Amino acid sequence: MAVRAIRWPGRANLFVSLVAIHNGVWKGKHSLDGRDVDMINAFFEESAYASDPLQLADNDQRLYQGSIFRGDGFLLTHEKQRHSVGATHEMQRLSEKNQWSGTK
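RESULT FIELD:
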């Protein structure tokens, strides 16, 4: 069973897809958007053949990469972790030092 687009309830302007997953060989019916179909491919199409995805030119300038993590953040020794009060103070001290030093 797959449904390609359902409007998210509430105020969010969002559509989601629903997919039922079965581990093993499925011997039941296949349903796509409420219709019985012979097969559903990885692109939620009624076909065994799945062509390569095409790049959307309209979205060329709208892409967003997301967060890039640089460094390991705040690493504390196990000894400091065991002493949570000390570790909390140490993280606060490092955070304040990092904020005022201009490093990220």
